[in-house]
Amino acid sequence: MRRTANVRRTALAWVFAVLAVVTVIPAASAQAADDGTPPPMANGFGLTQVGTATGNATEFYLTVTTPEVAEEQHIKIILPKTYYDDPNRRYPVMYFLHGSPDDPIQQNYPALRVSDRMITVIPDGGARGWYTNWLNQKTAAGAQNWENFHLKQVIPFIDANLRTIATKKARAVAGVSMGGFGALHYAQARPDLFSQTASLSGDIDLSVRSMDLRLAVVASLVAYEPSVDSDAAFGSPYPVFNADWRFNEVDPSQHMDRIKQGGIGVSIYVGNGGGSVTDLEFWLEGAAKHVKNAMDALGMSYHYVNYGDGSGWGTLCNGGHNAGCWEEDLRDLIPRLERHFAS
């Protein structure tokens, strides 16, 4: 268990750290291309690597520690096949957030490997991290500042170590299930960082009208070891004397105006679980419709796909809450992101 600490850096230290890494990138890129190993990545921004990267020159993962989150965490990186061809070319980045209780290493969607126009980064979100800085940092799980880890550490770490285009226009955040919530939440919390956000079967309505999804969040907190307080992340889910204000504050469905004001493009994909109430997708369809209604009320433009039972959505999707449907979602999303980045 690592000590919790606030990671602070001055603007000058940030600049020097970026310059120190960027100046060696062309040589490092050539080395990685020659021997087929992952490119060297320098520690920084509160992240310390454990051991060496695992994988090959274009698909690999790092293991890191950070005072912001207890235990070791993985960061999976997928580079375009052309990454080493031109040492002067820079790429936009899609940050892809996994669901519960997955891990970046398990995100093996073929659609993520086909792009030669962008970098994909999949940071660890924990089995129940919920892409937030938890209310209670003193549980048996230790430090749980996931938002700080991703937005204040992983993003600048990636920009310093890889040839990214480090601008809002060239950065997107997408995710599945719990990660779909994280994608919209991060876009709302930091609209200056992202130009596109996408939810694939996301828990994107945590309002009282979707109390079943609120309670699913609570259940996930106690489902994994070490056991933690059910209110550890967002406090009480019950609307009594405003006790649920933290759920309301992070609920994507109530803050789509922040995305509109930030000029962020929105994509939402959802099915209906084949109409079965035992499939989580059945309940997420209602959540997606609530967000759609909120965007309509604000006069927003968006990309919305409800593929129902999946019968008209490629060959892998049955409308359920599963990887087959998310693969089809990504086959639609990634070319659209590429066109946006190139525009």
How would you portray this structure in words?
Strands 1, 2, 3, 4, 5, 6, 7, 8, 9 and 10 form a 10-stranded mixed sheet that branches. The chain has one domain: 3-Layer(aba) Sandwich (Rossmann fold). With 343 residues, it is an alpha/beta fold. The protein has helices spanning 11-22, 25-35, 146-161, 178-189, 211-223, 245-250, 256-261, 280-298, 323-342, and strands spanning 48-49, 54-55, 59-66, 69-78, 93-97, 119-123, 171-176, 196-200, 265-270, 303-306. The longest helix has 20 residues, at 323-342. The chain contains 9 helices and 10 strands. A hairpin with a 2-residue loop joins strand 3 (59-66) and strand 4. Helix 1 (11-22) packs across helix 3 (146-161).
What keyword list fits this structure?
343 residues; alpha/beta; 10 strands; disordered N terminus
E-strand count: 10
What Rg, in angstroms, do the CA atoms define? 20 Å
Profile the largest sheet. Answer: 10 strands, mixed
> What would the average pLDDT be, to the nearest integer?
92
SSE sequence, one letter per element: HHEEEEEEHEHEHHHEHEH
Q: Tell me the number of structural domains.
A: 1
Strand composition percent: 15-25%
The helix-and-strand class reads alpha/beta
Which ranges are low-confidence, i.e. pLDDT below 50, for 5 or more consecutive residues?
1-31
What's the helix count?
9
Can you tell me the CATH superfamily? Alpha/Beta hydrolase fold, catalytic domain
Helix content: 25-40%
CATH class: Alpha Beta
> How far is it from the N-terminal to the C-terminal residue, by CA?
45 Å
Name the CATH architecture.
3-Layer(aba) Sandwich
Query: If you consult CATH, what is the topology?
Result: Rossmann fold
Shape: globular
